[in-house]
Design goal:
The complex is a heterodimer of chains A (433) and B (169).
Chain A (H helix, E strand, L loop, with lengths): L6 H9 L10 E5 L2 E4 L4 H10 L11 E3 L10 H17 L3 E2 L8 H6 L9 E4 L13 E4 L2 H10 L1 E5 L3 E7 L8 H12 L8 E5 L8 H9 L8 E4 L3 H10 L19 E6 L6 E3 L7 E3 H4 L6 E4 L1 H4 L2 H11 L9 E4 L4 H9 L2 H7 L3 E2 L20 E4 L15 E4 L2 H10 L5 H13 L1
Parallel strand pairs in A: 2-3, 2-5, 3-4, 5-6, 8-9, 8-11, 9-10, 14-15, 14-17, 15-16, 17-18
Antiparallel strand pairs in A: 1-7, 12-13
Helix pairs in contact in A: 2-5, 6-7, 11-13, 11-14
Chain B lengths: L3 E9 L6 H4 L10 H5 L10 H4 L4 E5 L11 H9 L1 E6 L4 H9 L3 E4 L3 H4 L5 E5 L4 E4 L5 E3 L5 H9 L2 H12 L1
The chains are: A alpha/beta (433), B alpha/beta (169).
Chain lengths: 433, 169
């Protein structure tokens, strides 16, 4: 008789060939995928080279996507890109998504048809839990861990406690997945899930698309989470089929009903309002009413959190036939080349350009203040990204407010932080007229 | 390896000091520790790189090192001269990175309240005690995990991995 386990515990137990694992145990876990970008991977490669350990445990299981500063913003970033690419070629890394064919690593990976439920992925990037929405164990690590995983195909892990989040009800118009995750971080705090797995479920989950679910697990780290994870259901399976992930690789686990959780919280989606996280912590969430009217200089739509096609559609529905306020710069960054092409086909890019926004190429962009929209002193930015730390998007005196793509678009038009529901009502009225 | 460490402390009574503050992303196109060390903690305290001396100890509140996975945060602190960090607790990835680099990150709840910047701290790793030389106050902490000590002895996680593999073959 096996003991009840959470979803993360079940995946880890299966990976190490055990009936049961318990929180606090130190395990050496085999990985199915290593996701590599050009900021943290070149240094990992050098570490291996310097120690005579320059090998790749399985080149078919490494996915390399330069994303942080591509196309190169300067000579130093061009060198980082070259170091990644040279290594990819030397070792015959099978999944290489070059500039113009890739985008943000997490978003490329989720839609690549490569990852499957029950698998384990590590990456030298803290937003790796993004892929946990597919029912896999996905976690961010540093460059040394990344080097170890590239070399040995394993990484060490202390089995996390699990925090369970049950969703009930259904989101109302103008309220989105971003509002759910910002509300959860507000409630539990920036370290509320410190070193834990955040397991999402409940009857409300069935109402959320895969794209919305990625937004939830993507920001696990903003609550301190080691991973975010959602058991695969019909929505997941339809998505995997569409992306062409071979069914024989799916290994779908469900958490046991009597699994032991460190904490359990419930979020009623039907009662949720748009949330804005004030500077300088993602957990500093406030109802939109409290942010209403804060004048902005920049509106940023993009990132692995909210740069997907559904995000662009929402923003375009608000910007259609309207103009970005005179004093505002709006920057739109589709997360991947595939999303960029889709947005082009649907006419969304034209809507953004007509509205006076600038559309940039897929990359991590200004989310971490490296390029394409870096903030200057005292700039105020409304952003669909994941962090509003001091200096995150540029100058330390700049102020970053985090919100949904709808809030970003509505605020760009109004010139100040604005409840998107005002616009959605107008849009609905116009359409029915 | 000596188990007693003495150092002058820099106290930041703040929770959630994040890796963007420890080493801003604008410097991440370099992985040269010396360069990173010149900018350690810059967005929290621009004077830190000037104030810190080799062997100093950094003390902060809870959830130290939250945010990005950048191991550059550990390298920047170490290159700036920080011998060890003491905090109530750590963000998951920063803590992993510290262990993997054999860099000491001790969990001592309440340390930030027990020290003022400039005090001397005496850490006894074996006994699990942290003493303020000025006040005489001693705090206790749980010993480092066995795994962390093994990695530290090996000189880092990759050395540990390599040594284990050659031992097995």
């Amino acid at each position: 008789m096996t003991q009840p386990m959470t979803l993360a515990e079940k995946i880890l137990a299966a990976k190490v060939g055990r009936d049961v694992v318990r929180p606090g145990e130190l395990l050496e876990v085999p990985v199915d995928w290593v996701l590599a970008h050009e900021i943290t991977t070149p240094v990992a490669i050098r570490m291996l080279e310097q120690r005579g350990m320059d090998r790749v445990w399985n080149p078919a299981r490494v996915v390399a996507v330069p994303d942080h500063t591509v196309p190169a913003k300067d000579i130093a970033s061009a060198r980082l890109y070259q170091r990644l690419k040279t290594w990819v070629q030397k070792h015959g890394i099978e999944h290489w998504y070059d500039v113009g064919r890739g985008g943000i690593a997490h978003t490329v990976f989720e839609a690549s048809g490569l990852p499957a439920p029950g698998e384990v992925v590590v990456s030298g990037d803290s937003h790796t839990p993004n892929a946990g929405a597919l029912g896999m164990f996905a976690t961010g690590v540093g460059s040394t861990d990344l080097a170890g995983a590239i070399y040995a195909g394993t990484f060490w892990l202390k089995v996390p406690e699990t925090l369970r989040i049950d969703l009930v009800g259904q989101l109302r118009p103008g309220v989105y997945a971003k509002d759910i995750i910002l509300e959860v971080i507000r409630r539990i705090g920036d370290d509320g899930a410190r070193s834990m797995a955040m397991e999402w479920g409940g009857p409300g989950m069935a109402t959320l698309s895969m794209e919305e679910r990625f937004t939830l697990t993507n920001m696990a780290v903003e609550a301190g989470g080691m991973t975010g994870i959602i058991a695969a259901d019909d929505v997941t399976q339809a998505y995997l089929r569409e992306k062409g992930t071979p069914e024989e690789r799916w290994c779908i686990f469900q958490p046991d009903p009597d699994a032991r959780y460190a904490e359990r919280i419930e979020v009623n989606l039907s009662e949720l309002e748009p949330v804005v996280a004030f500077p300088n912590r993602p957990g500093n969430g406030h109802p939109i009413a409290e942010a209403q009217g804060i004048r902005i200089d920049q509106a940023y739509l993009g990132s692995c959190t909210n740069g997907r096609i559904s995000d662009l559609r929402i923003a375009a529905s608000i910007l259609r036939g309207r103009r970005v306020a005179d004093h505002v710069r709006m920057i739109v960054v589709p997360a991947t080349q595939a999303i960029y092409k889709q947005a082009l086909r649907e006419g969304l890019l034209e809507i953004f350009v007509e509205a006076g926004a600038t559309v940039s190429y897929p990359s991590c962009g200004a989310c971490l203040g490296m390029h394409t929209g870096v903030l200057g002193p005292d700039d105020v930015c409304i952003s669909s990204t994941n962090r509003n730390f001091t200096g995150r998007m540029g100058h330390p005196s700049a102020q970053i407010y985090l919100a949904s793509p709808a809030v970003v678009a509505a605020s760009a038009v109004a010139g100040a932080i604005t409840d998107p529901r005002e616009f959605l009502t107008e849009t609905a009225t116009q359409l029915s007229a | 390896m000596s188990t007693t460490i003495r150092g002058r402390v820099h106290v930041y009574r703040r929770d959630h000091i994040n890796t963007d503050e420890i080493i801003p992303a604008r410097y991440l196109t370099s992985d040269d520790p010396e360069y990173l060390g010149l900018h350690a903690m810059e967005d929290l305290d621009p004077d830190f790189p000037k104030k810190v001396q080799s062997g100093d100890i950094l003390i902060a509140g809870k959830n130290f090192g939250t945010g990005s996975s950048r191991e550059h945060a550990v390298w920047a602190l170490r290159a700036a001269g920080v011998a060890l960090v003491i905090a109530d607790n750590y963000a998951n990835i920063f803590y992993r990175n510290a262990i993997n680099n054999g860099f000491l990150a001790l969990e001592v709840p309440g340390a930030a309240e027990a020290f003022e910047t400039g005090d001397e701290a005496v850490v006894d790793l074996r006994a699990g005690t942290l003493t303020n030389s000025r006040t005489g106050q001693t705090l206790t902490f749980a010993p480092l995990p066995e795994f962390a000590l093994k990695v530290r002895e090996a000189g880092g996680y990759l050395e540990y991995l390599k040594a284990r593999e050659s031992a097995a073959s």
